[in-house]
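Chain A, query sequence.
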Amino acid sequence: MIARLYDCMIVKWFNRKSGGFKPTAFAMPSQSRNFTITQFTLFLLAFFFLIRLIGITNPPLEIGHNWRQCLTNMVARNFLEVDANIFFPRIDIAGEKTGIMGAEFPLFNYLIYLASLVFGYEHWYGRWINLIVSTAGVYYFFLLIKELFDKRIASYATLILTVSVWFDFSRKIMPDTFSVALVLIGFYYGYYYLKNGNWWRLVLFFALMTLGILSKLSALSLMSFLLIPLLIPQIEIGRKIGMTLAAALCVVLVGTWYFYWVPYLAETYGYMLYFPRSLAEGAAEIAALWKLTLEKFYFSAFHSFVAFGCFLVGLFFVFQAKNPPPTPSKGGQENLNISPFGGGWGVEHAYHLKIAIATFALIFFLYMLKTGEVFPLHNYYIIPAVPLMALVAALALIRLRPKYALIILAVITIESIANQYHEFFIKENERYKLTLESIADEITQPNDLIIINDGSRNPQQMYFAHRKGWTINQEDLNTIHIAHLQELGANYLFVNKHLSQEKFEYKMMYEDDNYIIYKL
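Chain A, predicted structure.
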């Protein structure tokens, strides 16, 4: 019944609209059903793309990670209004300093800036950019898994990834899924370079991997999978060397940015966005927050306990296999299937997957230690691990009859979306912050430095005020600290009455239900 409904509704609709599917260079001619699986996957990706357009033009006022989205926009707006040099990202909460800071390579911010050059600045451009790139990344993930395993595993893994933490964060103004998507697309072209050659595929692999990892250093953990091609004897040695050199150059460029340029910016301009820990410091912080750390895996990754259960079962099936490494195939290189997993799935193909999982787990664990408490306190730091986890979960479902697998996938989809849909909306009681810029324009000059009680390093209200200055914690909202900032150049004090009811003796310039503004 399901298959008949699929054939009637999806395939016939597609053929009527497009004149029939045209095989592409990456489809295997002997597997014509791959075409319909690809069509159906495209349909699902389009469907979930449309769902995520709900509230796509919302300003960054949702409860989850609004501060990080405002910071992203703040850097993009400064490219537009102050200096478009991509090597000098700057923010507005560095007080009397320039605002230039050490942070990730601002490719995502720069795309927002380029869109603003064409269309004029709006809060929500980053949502569109992230959603488009992240959706493309999931599609290339499907194409890659289809080649490495088979079409059913690819379709299962793609759906699980789409409704995972990816579902929410792929529409946030943040570079996390954006960066991993670029890396996934890069892996696809890297695979086909190893399989068929052509230098342009190697160039795309290098460019996409480098830009993805520069955009978010956490994506570097995915490079651990590049160990696998070195273990496959069927791959031409020249292509292995080309891949190794491209990966090495990628690491050099990433290392130059994060370990030379970022410290230089921090030292020169006096502002650092993040503070890496030593391995010992990170281990102590992770251990103290071990419950939150585990939660990132069993809930935050999928937002579905059922999906995590499938992941554990799939992990068991992978590691219980007692098999030797695959032996080289005899014959020429032409038309050779270089998939380390045999182009299908069974325990006999688990050898390289075990290595891939173990290597990734080691690199990802070191990354967790370097971030310390930031990892358990922020659910988006798990994102680089989710594509692999989705694949392993799919390897559990593939052992079931399709109808049972579909039922479980439906449960995963419902559970995951139910745990994330609230992030598509903003609370009405937060909209008052959108009035900040008009109030600031009425009372202050664009170059005036302001103080606002929004929590240390929280840029949200400073972003909406469209001013520069200091954001402070509530305990620092006192005359001694304010006097110190006044000496550094602060001109006005903005007090959010929802956060503090404290009054001051400074000259009051403005008051409403939400804010009091004092002239210092």
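DSSP finds 21 helices and five strands in the chain. The beta strands are 449-453, 468-472, 490-496, 507-511, 515-519.
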